[in-house]
Amino acid sequence: MLVKAFLTRKDNPLLIVPCLFNPKELSVEKSNQFAEVNIPGLPSPVFQFVRGNARSVTMDLFFDTYELGTDVRIFTDRITGWDAGSMFSKLPDAAKGLMDIDSDLHAPPICLFIWGAFIFQCIIERVSKRFTMFVPEGFPVRATLSVTLKEYREVDVQVKEISLQSSDLTNRWTVRQGDSLWSIAAREYGSPEDWRLIAEKNGIDNPRMLTPGRELVIPVKE
Length: 222
Known about the structure:
Layout: E1 6-9, E2 12-18, E3 27-29, E4 32-37, E5 46-52, E6 56-64, H1 73-80, E7 111-115, E8 118-134, E9 140-151, H2 155-162, E10 172-174, H3 181-189, H4 195-202, E11 215-217
């Protein structure tokens, strides 16, 4: 049985927003943009690559608190936010959802969607909430969130990948409070999904259990 999927902030992996139920399916989309170049004398244009577009992941997340007898927005608002600070918000005072603008970043935070071995560094681009069950007291106890995640990759990481040389990768990493293998892999390799390279090199069985001060060997990605 797969472990429960969850969302977290890249800069604060201790903040966990769990999914009550795992999604039934994920849709992953990737596209490239080409320009048509018309050349006199040819019967059809040739295509010139312009740029790649970021991957996107779409899914439906189901939330049900009927048996608990609590407002389902206690869970959904941790993702969407939106109403933070209003009378409709179910977030604690001063708390924000993952889609709300962070006061320090002046933008929504970079997130990680983690489901077993699938780790996706992203921003939450779009969410549609549907409340489908209410109790007599008037608050919702069942909701479905249609979520679109857009892949986020730092500019310096993309520039590094263009080079065929890998000698500039950091050889060692000293674990700091709040570090996780997927956040280290995202910084060093540009993809949090490469955390297994570090885990295997350092004999780590539980990727979420890192001791601050431990020195990790960062292997060169072939």
